[in-house]
Amino acid sequence: MSSITEHLPMEARKSGPLRGECRIPGDKSISHRSFILGALSVGETRVSGLLEGDDVMRTGAAMRELGAETERLGEGEWRIHGFGTGGFAEPSNVLDFGNSGTGVRLAMGAVSTAPIKAVFTGDESLRSRPMQRIIAPLSEFGATCIGRNGGLLPIMVVGAESPVPASYVSPVASAQVKSAVLLAGLNAPGRTRLIERVPTRDHTERMLAAFGADIEVGETGDGHEISLGGYAELKPQAFSVPRDPSSAAFPVAAALICEGSEIRVPGICVNPTRTGFFATLQEMGASLEFENERIEGGEPVADLRSKFSSLSGVEVPPSRAASMIDEFPILAVVASFAEGTTRMIGIKELRYKETDRISAMARGLESCGIEIEETEDSLAVQGKGAGGAFGGATCRTHFDHRIAMSFMCMGLAAQNPIRIDDCSAISTSFPGFADLMAGLGADISVEPESR
Ligand code: S3P
Question: What is the C-alpha to C-alpha distance for residues 259 and 415, in angstroms, rounded to an integer?
Answer without folding.
Answer: 12
